Amino acid sequence: MTTATLTEDQRLLLSQVWPGRMAGVFLTPDTEIPALHRSRAGGCWPARPNLPDWFRSYDCTAKGIVGGPINEPPHTIVTWAQLGRFVRSVPADLIAELRAADRDWRNPKRCRDALLAVLGLGVEVPVQLELFEAAR
Fold it and tell me: Rounded to two decimals, what is the model's pTM?
């Protein structure tokens, strides 16, 4: 588990952001954090098991990544500066496992599990589905 500089809610928020891009944020932060910032990505979903009731959406904003109820003030935020500090605090062994998992494109679950390990979260946390990925 990482030495968390983020709260559990903040790390949970990161677990739900565009999974393919989030792995890249940890692997090549100097290019991927600005790319995620520029993307203005966002998403929303119905209630999910293992996620708090308040957590129904995320948006990448000028200030950072915000998450919370749909069409309500955000519950939690990870600023871009916080994200950069957190990414750079992750131990090398966890980054190495994420890199190996990211290369194993035939096994998306391995990459999800490695990302959750980097975030210090358990594998019971649901992750946003990638386009064309079958629901589990």
Answer: 0.83
Which are the contacts of 114, defined by CB distance < 8 A and separation ≥ 6?
23, 94, 97, 98, 100, 101, 102
User: Which of these, 125, 84, 119, 127, lies nearest to 98 by C-alpha position?
Assistant: 119
Q: Distance between CA 66 and CA 98 in Å, rounded?
A: 24
Beta-carbon-side half-sphere exposure of residue 104 (alpha carbons within 13 Å): 14
Question: Is the pLDDT at 126 greater than 80, yes or no?
Answer: no
List all residues 6 or more positions away from 101 whose beta carbon is below 8 Å from its beta carbon: 23, 107, 110, 111, 113, 114, 115
Among positive and negative, which fits the CA dihedral 134, 8, 33, 110? negative
- Alpha-carbon torsion 110, 78, 7, 31, what sign? positive
Please name the helix (run of DSSP H) or strand (run of DSSP E) that holds residue 76, with its range, or none.
strand 76-79
Helix extents (H) in 40-107 = 80-89, 92-103
61-104 pLDDT per residue, tens = 999 999 999 888 999 999 999 999 999 999 999 999 999 998 88
Instruction: Compute the distance between CA of residue 9 and CA of residue 38 in angstroms, rounded to an integer.
Output: 23
